[in-house]
């Protein structure tokens, strides 16, 4: 594993054909705030997060992950990472420079091993944010992003080697082998996870709520809005976090969660969990059963943007 220069997850950017419906969902139902909007482009902030935005929506013909963005501590660290990646033969989208997105900052983009666009940035201005109040069932922050991968072992190795991610836990199936890897870049149990899938795509993006009451209120609000629930509410064993998974209008899976585990990196040892054990999938036993039909909903459509950098 290389020296870790990544500090945290910033945002996930999505291109969608049904931009208007998506914008209504994320602002009217999911609880994000639209800011810095332009024609066919909206930056969505979480009221409790210092990040300028946690989701970006872009109108496009094809559905794709535009990019996943991570933070670094300084411009010098950004330059160091860019030089390391280039020396290792990783394809850069561009050299480090001033960003043209809200909060500006200094950063660069590159393609990971399967062609997803990744952005690394530093010195982005902090957004004015506030504490989420008791009973307020809107996202505090973007918790983590899970990627579907056709070659998850290689994807795990890429993020470990080039970005300093560490393995927290692994899920396995007795007959299918290892199926999901939880990766951390700080003391949160995971900021990124990698799932085995027939094709690269977004598995889900997860949003942290204030606490259990707010998480349940949010889950109920989304259900009352008629949004399709895939799985939950329940509590995972790996990460010890709660989960309620829903489909957005484009068929991307979105999660409400809370109480994701914080770990001591000096003493942590990764677990290998058999997710056919009911308590691994859901410690509480309150969620609908995880089966092949539930799992396939998060396979998502094949990403149409591999090795194609977004235009903005």
UniProtKB/TrEMBL annotation:
List, alphabetically, the CDD domains matched: BphC5-RrK37_N_like (cd08362)
Q: Which InterPro entries match?
A: Glyas_Bleomycin-R_OHBP_Dase, Glyas_Fos-R_dOase_dom, GlyoxalaseI/FosfomycinResist, VOC_core
Annotated VOC domain residues: 8-123, 141-259
Q: Which PANTHER family match?
A: GLYOXALASE FAMILY PROTEIN (PTHR21366), METALLOTHIOL TRANSFERASE FOSB (PTHR21366:SF31)
Q: This protein is called what? A: Oxidoreductase
Lineage of the species this protein comes from = Bacteria, Bacillati, Actinomycetota, Actinomycetes, Micromonosporales
